[in-house]
Amino acid sequence: MLLRKTLAQKSANSQRDRSRRNGFGMAEAVISLGASALLVSASAAALSTTGSLISNTEEKTSLRQNASNGLRLLGSEVQRSLHLLISTKDAQNAELAHTDLKNPQYASSLQECETLAVARNRPFRPAFGIRMAELDSPVLYGLSTSTRGNGYALERCGAPLTMDGRYGEVAETYISSILEDIGVLPCQGNPDTCDTSTNPDGTEQSLNQIIKQLDLDFAVIANHGERTPTRVIKEPAFAIETDAARKLIKIVAPSTQQAQDNPSYLEIKNSLRSISRQDLHFAAYSRASKIEDTDSREQSGVLNGAFFRNIRSKRVRFLVDGSGSMSACILWGSGRGQRRTYWTGKRYISSRKICALTRMESLQNELIAIINELTPDTMINIESFSSRGYLNHRGWKPSNNGLISLDDDSTRQSAISFVNSLNDGNVTRWGGTHPWDGLNTALNDQETDTLYFLSDGEPSTDPRGGKWSKKDFTSTVDSYVAKNDQRSQKITINTTALGLDSKWMNELADRSTGDYLMIDKSYVTVAQQ
Q1: Could you read off the pLDDT of 291-348 as tens digits, one per residue?
Q2: From CA 387, how far away is CA 429, in angstroms rounded?
Q3: 399: closest CA among 316, 326, 321, 483?
Q4: Which of 180, 319, 410, 525 has the smallest C-beta neighbourhood within 10 Å, fewest atoms?
Q5: pLDDT band at 388 (very low <50, low <70, confident <90, very high)
Q6: Is 82 exposed, middle or buried (0-12, 13-18, 19+ CB in 10 A)?
Q7: Which residue intervals of 172-309 are DSSP H helices?
Q8: What residues pair up with 343 in beta bridges, in sequence order?
């Protein structure tokens, strides 16, 4: 009996020893199985999170590309047009009868678009039209619901465009989407006080029903011409504005109570949560506009999309003029609004005359469009120059120590916010034209390989602080070319002279393998034909 117990104990001890030699005892095995289960769960959660991140990134990229492509097409048509067409709440000026969307001559076009919309079982509400010289019928832009069904869309109804940008010879009219996923405005205050439209049976109205009843008539506003009504909960996060002559179109904040840092936007949502949002910044004007300041007799002008050309670099700096002369008006409207200050070419004036677009506003529109279009792997720096100590002698803070990648939406939005801020404050405190700090910083940055340098006037001083004169042209260029030659990789310097022909900027670009662009009235006229 004792022998059997001894043998059994030895056998048990032998099994425990083998388990230890094999790496696990019973307790370790149980712990191992538990840990494995936790590891599998954590891995599954990580894979799920990674999948969500990839999906969200794709949605953001898609949304940004949607905005970029849609606004580019809209801009190209507006710039080729004779004028806009709108419906208005106010008594129609006889001189503007040809711009009235309710004019009987446009009735057949409106009816044709309505018929197409009914056939596809989705609404099309004309928001504005564009009168083209090449076409007998106008091109209409209207609001509808998005293809996803949980947002809105801006659509185009009219003659088709060919791949080379011409209008097709076929007279057939088409409806096509321009901007998908326009946001749905949420409640802006206390949810208990938000008025949500309902049907007679008490059910909440669908987006289709809201679009069909949406007020799209323009109304005169105090200081900017005319705009579509303020939007409320569940309506599209989209509003447009035009000048009194109906030559200009801007996409603006959906609410007149909101500041312009709450603009119209595109948005993709998953249930009630926002996955991605893309703000809409846009302004363009028709080719029939006289883009000049007749009061100062300047030959100034700006073509949307003309300041910075052929951007191919992934390591690029933008050095832009933030001086007070950038407040010069390049597109005057008619009528009077709030008093504003402008540069006339010789001095500042305070006027109630409505300015539809200033040099600074046109620069902002283009730079914002570029920031939205640049790929996530692009690294940029933005700096504004004026006079030391003045409002616009500053850089975009995240890029103060070098180039910043646009691989994050918050970074991209930060860059846009900086560009928008260049129009803030009293224009007489924006400063003079002192580009030297910015040029020195750019040439000292070894990461940068391309610089875009824009100025609308001759420098206020030479690089040493003395009075600027023609004698400084060659020596200044020689100095910066020498600095460029000392770099391990030379910077390509592209220069844009706005409203003047700058000899030294031309030479600087030429000797730095860059392009020189002079923007004046004659350039705009040629570019828009």
Answers
A1: 333 333 333 333 335 688 888 899 999 999 999 999 998 877 655 667 889 998 889 9
A2: 9
A3: 316
A4: 410
A5: very high
A6: middle
A7: 207-213
A8: 348
306: helix, coil or strand? coil
DSSP assignment of 247-262, as one string?
-EEEEE-SSTTS-TTS
> Which of 197, 187, 212, 217 has the alpha carbon at shortest distance from 127?
217
The two three-digit tokens of residue 256, written as one number: 């007149």
| Total-model pTM | 0.62
Q: Distance between CA 529 and CA 522 in Å, rounded?
A: 11
Q: Three-state SS string across 27-56, please? A: HHHHHHHHHHHHHHHHHHHHHHHHHHHHHH
Sheet holding 174-182, edge to edge: 81-85, 125-132, 139-145, 152-158, 174-182, 265-270, 273-279
* Model pLDDT, residue 56: 63
Question: Each residue of 449-467: pLDDT tens digit?
Answer: 999 999 998 999 999 999 9
Question: Cα(307)–Cα(524) distance, rounded to whole angstroms?
Answer: 11
Overall CATH class of domain 315-528: alpha beta
Q: In this predicted structure, which of 35-39, 394-398, 501-505 has the lowest mean pLDDT? A: 35-39
**pLDDT tens across 70-122, in order?**
888 898 888 888 889 999 877 666 777 888 999 888 999 999 999 999 999 89
Task: Kindly list the domain boundaries of the chain, sorted by start residue.
Answer: 54-189+205-285, 315-528
Q: How far is CA 132 from CA 61, 114, 286, 287, 288, in A?
A: 32, 20, 10, 10, 11
Do the Cβ atoms of 197 and 172 come closer than 8 Å? no
Identity of residue 172: E
